[in-house]
Amino acid sequence: MLDLFLLTNGISIGIVLFLAAAGLTILFGILKILNFAHGSFIMVGAYLTSSVLKLMPGYGVAEFLLTAVGVGIVVGLLGLVVDRIVFRRLHGIGEAVALIATFALMLVIDGGVALIWGVKYVSVDAPQGMEGAVFLGSLVLPSFSVLLVGIGLATFLAIDLLLTRSWVGKTLQSISEDRWIMDILGFNPRRLEFVAVFAAFFLAGFAGSVLSPNQVITPSLGGHMIIQAFAVVVVGGLGSVRGAFLAAMLLGLAESFGSGIMPSLSLYIGMIIILVLRPQGLIAPKLSAKPGSWSISWLWEGLYGSPKRAVPAMSQEMVPATARKPVLSAAELRVLILLGIVLLSVPLWAGSGVVFAASLVLISTIFSMSWNLMFGYGGMASFGHGAFFAIGAYLSAYMLKTDPGASFALILLSAMVLGALIAAPVGIIALRRSTGVQLAILTLALAEILRVLISYSIRLGRDEGLTALPRPTIGFGEMSVSLGPDTSYYLFLCLACGAMVAILWAVSHSSFGRVLRSIRQDAPRATFLGVNVDRFRLQGFMLAAAVAAYAGALAAPLSQIVTPQAAAISRSTEPMLHTLLGGAGSFWGPAVGTIIFAAVNYATRTMAGLSELVMGLTLLAVVLIAPGGAAGFLRDIGGGMFRRRSPTPPAKAAAEGLQ
Prior knowledge:
Blueprint: H1 4-31, H2 38-53, H3 61-85, H4 95-117, E1 133-136, E2 139-142, H5 143-165, H6 167-177, H7 179-184, H8 189-211, H9 221-236, H10 241-258, H11 265-277, H12 313-316, H13 330-349, H14 352-377, H15 386-402, H16 408-433, H17 436-455, E3 473-474, E4 481-482, H18 486-508, H19 511-521, H20 523-528, H21 533-559, H22 569-582, H23 589-603, H24 610-625, H25 629-636, H26 650-657
Antiparallel strand pairs: 1-2, 3-4
C-alpha cells in the first residue's frame, strides 16, 4: 500500500527543489548561462529575510509573503548589476569557463555574506498560524509545508504561463533560439534579456526568503542549494521549466521513499539513473544532441586487427617522419632548477607551519594537474574529481592504519590502480552517454554518493573518518628511513611529486597528449581521421583518476586524518579553481594557480570570509580579463616558462597519434 506520508513528504521536498531551481532554469533557458552562484543568491535572500523579519515581531503570512517579494526585488536588482559586470562578458567563451566564472562569483558572494552576517547559523521562525499541523484523517502535514506547496505550485503556473502564453515569454524564447534573426527583425535582445535576468534573480531571492524558515541559514547554504538546483535543471532538461518541475517531483519522491534506507543517497541515485538513461533531460531542448549508444564495441575497435577507419590520404602528408620528443626550453630548465632549490631549502629557513603549507601546495599541484589533463587536454569537465582523491586517501589511510609497516610505494601504486579501475566503468558509461554540463553533474552525483557511503561505513570511521594515522617508513632493513618528522615527509613529497610531474610532462607532450588536444579542439574531425575518440577520452579519464588517487594517497599521511569531506564538492572544485586561475591547457598553469591560491589563502586566513572574497575576485578578474589564466598572462608578457608550443592542428595531432 502506498504510504501517503512519504508521498506528501516527497511532493513537499520536490516543491523545495523546484523553488531552488526555477531561477536557474530561466537564466539558462534564455541566456544559456548555468549560474553556479545561483545558490549563493538564494542564501542572500534568506539572510535578508532574517534581518527584515527581526524588525517585525509577530509577523503573519501576509507580512511574510510581502517580505519575500521585497527581498526578491532587491536580489533581482542585484542580478542586473551582476549581468552588466559579469554576464555580458561571458558571451562567446566556453561553457565550462563561463561556469567557472560564476563559481568565482559564488566565492565572492559567500565571502561577503560571511563578512557581513558572520559564520554562526541564523534561524527564521515560521509565520504566525503556520507553526502547527494540518490533519487529514490519519495524515498529519506541517502547516508551513502546505503553505510551501501552494507557493511552489503558484510559482510554477505563473512562470509557465509567462513563458508560453505572454508576448514577453514567447519573444524571450525566440531570442534564446535565434538571437541574430530577432535582432534583424527589429527586437532589442539586450533589453528583453534584462527581463529574464531580473526574473531569474528575483526567483532566487524569493526562494531564499520563502524557504528560510525551512533551512538552517549559514554561509554554506548556497553550496547545498546549488547542488540540488543543478540536479533539477540538468535532469529536467536544460532550460525547460516543465522539465525542471517534473524532475523536482521525481527527485523529491526518490528522496522521500529512499530516506528510510539511507538519507541523502536516493536523491543522487535518482539523478544518475535519469542522466544515464536520458542524459539530455526529461524534456530535452529541441536541438539537443543525441546521447551515444549503449554499444561497447568502441572499446576494442581498431585493436588486434579489428576494423579501423583509415586516415584520409591528405592527412598523411601532415604526419612527420618521427614523433616529436618533449623538450624543455632553456628558460623552463632554469626556472625548474631554481624552483627545485627553493623547495628543497624550505625546511632550512621556514617554520613547521610553512613546511606543512608547502607540502599541501605540492599535493594540490599534482591533484590540479590531473584535472587539467582531463579538462585542459581532453575537454572533459568533471565536478566529481574529488572522489578519486578520496579513494586514494582512504586506501592509504586504511593500509597504514592496519599495517604501519606496509610498503608505501606499494600503497601509492595500489591507489593509482584502484583509482583507474573504478574510473573505467564510470567513464565507459558517463563519457559515452553524456557530455558537457551533463557529464559534470553526473560525476558530481557519483562523488556525493561516495561521500555518503563513506559516512555510513563503520570500518572507515563514519563521519569522523580515520584518525591518528602513522606516517610510513621507506627503504629496507637498516636502510629504512622514517617519514614521521614533518621535514622528512616534506622532502619525500618533493621527490614523489617531482616524479609525477615528470610523468605527466611526458604524457602531455607525447602523441597521446597531442591526440587528446586534437579531440578537445575538434572531436568530429578527429573521428573522421580515424581516431577512436571515446577510447582516448576514457584513457585520459582513467589516467587523471589514477593521478588524483596518487595525490590522495600522499595527502593522508601528511594530515594524518581522512574524513568524508575528501570526496565533498569543495575538494572537487579545488583543482578546477587552480587550473582555471593558472590557465587550462597550459601544463604549468595548475601549478601557478595552486601557488596563487595558497598565497592568498595563507595571507587572509585570519578573517572568516575574506579568503573566499579575495580568491573569488581574483579568479573572476582572471576569467574576464585574461581567459588564458595567470600562465597565459605571463606568456603574453614574454614569460618563456609559460609559453605554449605552437598548437598542433587537429588533423596533424590525430594523425600523429595513430602512428
